[in-house]
UniProtKB/TrEMBL annotation, chains A, B:
Pfam families in alphabetical order: Aldedh
Reactions it catalyzes: 2,5-dioxopentanoate + NAD(+) + H2O = 2-oxoglutarate + NADH + 2 H(+); 2,5-dioxopentanoate + NADP(+) + H2O = 2-oxoglutarate + NADPH + 2 H(+)
Keywords: Oxidoreductase
Source organism of this protein record: Pseudomonas bharatica CSV86
Protein's recorded name: 2,5-dioxovalerate dehydrogenase
Molecular-function GO terms, alphabetical: 2,5-dioxovalerate dehydrogenase (NADP+) activity
Keyword Ribonucleoprotein: no
Family listed: Belongs to the aldehyde dehydrogenase family.
Source taxon at top rank: Bacteria
Length: 527, 527
């Protein structure tokens, strides 16, 4: 394991120009770990953004296969991160070793998935409309299109996934795959982890001959604003709070040249329990739901924060069972002290609301988060009460009992945009409640049937996105291979000689791409 | 031809609730035409947006083939618009009949192109990752993805294309194809045209059994703000000024739920003339360039507003020839009086600048726009002087003579984002100046070789877009079939029973789509 230097990563070098040092803390004990980090100066942030800009022209023009080599090399380096590394991540985040080992595999798997996307080549979106010199009344000239990277991307590390949504996480992987150099802002909650992962990326970059500046990382509070406002930065990826994401969007929109921000923010992930399932397997649902609510200390973007059911003795029984499971949960150490404060504050807001009742959960005290169950009046949902729409980040959930189908519909229409919605039901439920499906489609990025939203598969078909405030742009996803689309834009080449065309668009089709040629998809060479 | 009622189009009905009437004017004489229009009230704008929202669930769930029928029916109705219609468009815009006839064909062709996109089905982006129940350490559940419309879209008509970028124009076609109902804000410069085209869309909607509210249109100044701020509206399409587009972006970002704005705004479309071409065919280039600068009164988004060449006697000769052609151009009536005022204002700003010299063009007086040629100091480009970056909408162009390759590079780096850039060269030029191509790729949406940017082909490979300020979102295009992407977002279906899945994602593949199944593209049925 390399020494944890704590210096910023700029253009393949380490830099510590400023005087201020930041300390990494043990998440469980709060004590200082023996690692400190150089808060980046404004000059260093500028250098990092300039380094990314300088790398862009070369990096984006590398063949997809070369960029795939780089991603595969990062994956291999991540897999090599050993138990000593895992131990450091665990100390910084209070997450258990098995979770970190799993997340390491997920993070390297994510890099390999994007390497596959690069080798497949469809991300280029190659389209060719051949010249029609005889067309009447006017001839058509040769017109071709493909997508290129938008430019340097600023990525913000998330607190809750020190690997999969951080230094070498999904946003970094998608940006690099798209040909966009990255400037990564390390999260203050796991800076030693970030340093070691950045070293791994650095080794992969050197080994595969990538341009210096393809990956840069800065430490420090407040440096994000310099980064988002830097003219070289062309897009932003972020996972965090609604307040934080909104602030980045405002900064980005206020630039002389506005840029897109892909922020994954706030979601309460409703789970709707339908009557047939309740009757048949209410006890199992209560147990499974308690597991999903408390998994990882409830610190998942897809944590089920809202459970909805139709008023019935069966639903009352489920609430009793769910409360019993949550009552029995041991306390959990949260990712950091700020997270616990924020959780306790969120619980206090719920407790203070006249329309919300505490159903179960041990009193919240000390340094560990206790699971909590609340029940809210259905009218709060129907009237879009803001408190009920806000994510309480931690192992708490709110249940809502609706009187009938009509109130269920009104309650769901009152919901804001979500990452996920879940239907728990039996086949007869899906016949009776088929109307729920299109309604939920308009509210969320992912609908699950008979599952739980925690646990986001990294694959081609995943959508980890959704209408605001789940994300700042419903047209993107931050998990899965479609995430690359956020960092690409189309360019059109009109009447180009073959020699000047990018390989993807040449008649000889050297990349063997499937292309849209005169309105038909084929993988042909153009004769 | 139906009577021009001048009432707003709301949910398949006509509505004129307010007292204020707006007058259509003859663009050439300024006199009132015998048509007046009901300024929409805030209540009517609300009704129009609500009508679009009410139509959304049904419209987006129609099969792509049904939506294609609707677009084809609109195309047929547009083709039926007769000489009397063309005469009205000409009176409202001062554009010649041949141009309007051509634009009519382009507009119906655009509808048919999107109908083809719908029948092809790739816009759905169907992806399927099948369950892997045996996977270690965790099984994978079945996960599928497709794209759906984002919701009701507000579209703003452009002044300069009364048909192709207006009521039934590209943004409307793309939104309808995506399954998004439209609320169209008619441009004040051609309201009678808008009324007749909206009637044509209405007939097509009725004939093909579309839901009421699939298309709505409102008249009036200031109604755009109500529309963009309406909670039912989920995206905005706009073609117009930088100031107007920026204002819409600010409104959209300031909403409780921010929405994307696709604004096509300001571009000066640099044309770079390389030495070999200059030597071989300078005279022809001067003649062709004069034609492109003055085409349609210079009122194209892709009008070449900047001509760049390397200092030489050949380039001086070209400037003389170009000036001669522009001097000889007759005056042209602009689209409206406001356009002429704005053009004259733009010329005055150029004339008042110490670093800019007037080279040719008849004095600007009276009601017609005269073609003008200016020359600017290359340092103005290098230093990104804002005046030189601003589009002067009309038949004027600015030439810049650079000293050498190095100054050429600096000048191009100083440019803001553009819709197009054009290289005029011979094969030996492209060898010597190959470095220009990647530099321009990072600045523009479309690069042309040996052509002129005016005249935008409507096809699959076209990009009419580009980095800010050419557009507000470089990842989109407002011409060509890729424009549909702006109004789609992905939705993921996890562990769905076949009966609940959308047709596009069912195992039996009833739409015969090519889908990404377990990382491989195929058009198979899943056994």
């Amino acid at each position: 394991m390399p020494e944890i230097l704590g210096h910023n990563f700029i253009a393949g070098q380490r830099s510590a120009a400023g005087a201020q040092r930041l300390q990494s803390l043990d998440a469980t004990t709060g004590e200082a770990l023996p690692y400190s980090f150089a808060q980046a100066t404004e000059g260093e942030v500028d250098q990092a953004a300039q380094a990314a800009a300088a790398a862009f022209a070369e990096f984006r023009q590398l063949s997809p296969a070369r960029r795939a080599e780089f991603l595969d090399a990062i994956a291999a380096e991540l897999d090599e991160l050993d138990d000593a590394f895992v131990a450091i991540v665990c100390r910084e985040t209070a997450l258990p070793a098995a979770r970190i080992q799993g997340e390491r595999g997920r993070t390297s798997g994510q890099m390999r998935l994007f390497a596959q996307v690069l080798r497949r080549g469809d991300f280029l979106g190659a389209r060719i409309d051949l010249a029609l010199p005889e067309r009447q009344p006017l001839p058509r000239v040769d017109i071709r299109q493909m997508r290129i990277g938008v430019g340097p991307v600023a990525v913000f590390g998330a607190s809750n996934f020190p690997l999969a949504f951080s230094t070498a996480g999904g946003d970094t992987a998608a940006a690099l795959a798209a040909g966009c150099p990255v400037v990564f802002k390390a999260h203050s909650g796991h800076m030693a982890t970030a340093d070691l992962v950045a070293c791994a990326i650095q080794r992969a970059a050197e080994r595969t001959g990538m341009p210096k500046g393809v990956f840069n990382m800065v430490f420090g509070g407040g440096v994000g604003e310099w980064l988002v406002k830097h003219p070289a930065i062309q897009a932003v990826g972020f996972t965090g709070s609604l307040k934080g994401g909104d602030a980045l969007c405002r900064m980005a929109a206020g630039r002389a040249q506005p840029i897109p921000v892909f922020a994954e923010m706030s979601s309460i992930n409703p789970v709707i329990i339908l009557p047939g399932a309740l009757a048949k397997r209410g006890e199992a649902i209560a147990r499974e739901l308690a597991g999903s609510v408390t998994l990882g200390g409830g610190q998942f973007c897809t944590n089920p924060g809202l459970v909805i059911g139709l008023q019935s003795s069966g639903f009352s029984k489920l609430l009793g069972d769910l409360g019993g499971h949550l009552d029995q949960q041991a306390g959990q150490t949260m990712l950091n002290a700020g997270g616990l404060r924020s959780y306790v504050g969120g619980l206090e807001h719920l407790q203070a609301h006249a329309g919300i009742q505490h159903l179960a959960g041990q009193p919240q005290q000390g340094s560990q988060a206790r699971a909590q169950l609340f029940k809210a009046d259905a009218r709060l949902l129907v009237d879009s009460d803001p408190l009920l729409q806000e994510e309480v980040f931690g192992p708490a959930t709110v249940v809502v009992e609706v009187a009938d189908d009509e109130q269920l519909r009104s309650a769901l229409l009152g919901l804001r945009g979500q990452l996920t919605a879940t239907l728990i039901g039996e086949p007869e439920d899906f016949e009776a409640f088929a109307w729920l499906v299109p309604l939920l489609e308009e509210k969320v990025g992912r609908i699950l049937i008979n599952g739980y939203p925690t646990g986001v598969e990294v694959c081609d078909a995943m959508v980890h996105g959704g209408p605001y405030p789940a994300t700042s742009d419903a047209r993107g996803t931050s998990v899965g291979s479609l995430a690359i689309d956020r960092f690409l834009r189309p360019v059109c080449y009109q009447n180009y000689p073959q020699s000047l065309l990018p390989e993807a668009l040449r008649d000889a089709n050297p990349l063997r791409l499937r292309r849209l040629v005169n309105g038909q998809w084929n993988d042909d060479v153009i004769a």
